[in-house]
Write a structure and sequence with these properties.
Layout: E1 8-18, H1 22-33, E2 38-41, H2 68-77, H3 91-104, E3 108-110, E4 115-121, E5 124-132, E6 135-146, H4 152-156, E7 161-163, E8 178-181, E9 199-200, E10 203-204, H5 205-214, E11 226-229, E12 236-239, H6 251-275, E13 283-287, E14 297-299, H7 307-311, E15 319-324, E16 349-352, E17 364-366, H8 375-381, H9 384-404, H10 413-422
Helix pairs in contact: 1-3, 1-9, 9-10
């Protein structure tokens, strides 16, 4: 079927940022601070992505000092008790903070605005097509940043990509985060991951949960029960549910995963009540409004960041994110827990500008987990602190390209680095 319809152009911007998660928020704010007319387009009714809609708790990972990650962390921690940085955020408070943050910078925010297509001319984007209650409309721009996670804009524009691990294409599992309340703090344990040695009686807690999973008490592959503290006593963020062999870009598989995960959190909560001291009277307080997707498209760029770059703590002359640091956290694509037993520890590494420049399209920059990297490398840089730093670099780069009338691949990294260093970001050393 051939479909044709005339649509309105809503407005024209110097920089258009797609995706209002951690990377997109920082990209939009950074571009606006460079004096450019900037739009931020988000498919949900709130900003934050996994930090809010996905109910993901603490902002994991680290980067070198002086990036926008420091600003957002300080804002989100402003009313917290000392030493609570590793606790899950107050999701409702975070939604307001993030929206105020970008609006204060003069960014025009389009909420509840899914991007459904793009318009390209001569390997350049001229606009993104959005869907509204009153129909479709185009938002046009000079430079574009794709911070959608799945890389929707890049995909619509025809940028080549890879998915999954090289040997079989399998992706990390999807999950659904949720919070339980009415937990007895005098007895209730905390468990933060596979290496946690917390005990349940005389038995290591995660050995107990693994046994319960094998016995069918816990859902299949839900053997690692992670229980994080939140800002409030009597609450735990539960990171346990998972469904394997799901393509998060397939609408039928998304439905299957949603059904199974919604069922799983009931089973997991019943397990906590029956078997874990302090959780006898716990109940579900809130849960994520969307699937937790750890990986999907990874777009091919000017350079593909790989696991050896991380293991060797490789430095790059065109660095735009310095000292990115998180474990290689590959949730098992075909089973429970970690793919290789425990997450691999790596030294702080650099992300070069070339990884943010996709092939084929001249005025598009990538930010977040969709940048150019391998399955293994992405398992580290996908966390929010690193995505925030990538977003800031992408927003600065887009603003510079718009001002200088150059395409990203012709923009020398030194100009991005100069802008980052001017605001105090550490890039070398």
């Amino acid at each position: 079927m051939y479909y044709q319809k005339e649509i309105d152009v809503l407005d024209h911007y110097d920089v258009v940022v797609a995706g209002g998660g951690p990377a997109g928020i920082c990209a939009a704010a950074a571009a606006a601070r460079q004096g450019k007319k900037t739009a931020l387009i988000e498919r949900y009714g709130v900003l934050g992505g996994n930090l809010t809609v996905g109910c993901v708790g603490p902002i994991l990972g680290n980067v070198a000092k002086g990036t926008m990650y420091d600003e957002l962390r300080d804002l989100l921690l402003a009313e917290k008790e000392p030493g609570s940085a590793d606790k899950a955020q107050d999701m409702e408070r975070t939604k307001g903070i993030l929206l105020d943050f970008v609006v204060k910078e003069g960014v025009f925010v389009y909420l509840q605005t899914p991007i459904v297509d793009v318009v390209c001319e001569d390997e350049k984007l001229t606009g993104v097509i959005t869907a509204w209650k009153n129909g479709m409309a185009m938002i046009s721009g000079e430079q574009f940043v794709d911070a959608t996670g799945d890389g929707d804009v890049a995909c619509f524009a025809g940028v080549p990509f890879e998915m999954g691990r090289r040997e079989d294409g399998e992706l990390q599992p999807v999950s659904l985060m949720y919070i339980v309340e009415n937990v007895d703090e005098s007895k209730a344990i905390i468990c933060t991951g596979e290496e946690d040695e917390v005990k349940l009686g005389d038995e290591r807690f995660l050995e107990f949960t693994d046994r319960c999973c094998k016995e069918g008490i816990l859902p299949e592959n839900c053997n690692c029960v992670r229980l994080y503290m939140t800002d409030y006593p009597g609450e735990r963020l539960v990171n346990t549910s998972q469904v394997n062999h799901i393509d998060p870009l397939d609408r039928r598989q998304i439905l299957k995963a949603e059904q199974e995960l919604r069922h799983q959190i009931l089973v997991i909560t019943d397990f906590l009540r029956r078997y874990v001291p302090g959780y006898e009277k716990c109940r579900i307080k809130t849960g994520a409004s969307t699937l937790g997707v750890r990986e999907s498209r990874r777009f091919l760029g000017e350079y593909v960041l790989n696991i050896d770059d991380l293991r060797m703590a490789r430095r790059f002359d065109d660095v735009v994110v310095h000292k990115a640091h998180f474990v290689v956290d590959i949730h098992n694509p075909t089973g429970g827990g970690q793919a290789y037993g425990v997450a691999e520890k790596v030294e702080p590494y650099d992300i070069p500008w070339r990884c943010l420049i996709p092939q084929k399209i001249d005025n598009l920059i990538l930010a977040g987990r969709c940048i150019s990297g391998t399955h293994e490398a992405m398992a580290s840089y996908r966390v929010m602190s690193i995505c925030m730093a990538m977003g800031e670099a992408a927003g600065i780069a887009a603003a510079l390209c718009a001002g200088r009338k150059v395409v990203p691949r012709n923009l020398e990294a030194k100009w991005i680095q100069k802008a980052l260093k001017k605001k105090g970001a550490e890039l070398f050393g």
